[in-house]
Amino acid sequence: xxxxxxxxxxxxxxxxxxxxxxxxxxxxxxxxxxxxxxxxxxxxxxxxxxxxxxxxxxxxxxxxxxxxxxxxxxxxxxxxxxxxxxxxxxxxxxxxxxxxxxxxxxxxxxxxxxxxxxxxxxxxx
Length: 125
Fold this sequence. Notes:
The protein is mainly alpha-helical. It has two domains: 1-81, Multidrug-efflux Transporter Regulator, Chain: A, Domain 2 (Orthogonal Bundle); 82-125. 62% of the residues lie in helices and 3% in strands. It has helices at residues 7-14, 18-26, 45-59, 64-74, 83-117; strands at residues 34-35, 41-42. The chain has a two-stranded antiparallel ribbon.
């Protein structure tokens, strides 16, 4: 028998709020989820794995519309969207974001080195 998790257990396992999980189901990004005898949502290991993928894509900068499209693509509803093109475009945006962040980190490292140069080990100038 497959172990099903309650909403509270899914919240703890995923790190997402119950409101977010309900919203994702309402938007078709996850689910449809099974219900228990009280009509409460229950989550399978497969549901949690998919929530992990969705969370990763959200962290990568995909918005709700993109997450919905991504979910549709992976569940076979491709419509007019080419899945390879869709993912390549999002990947290119991530690469650009990485370049911007790398430049910002380099500037911060330079400023840290600058300020360290003006302060002795004892913390005095």
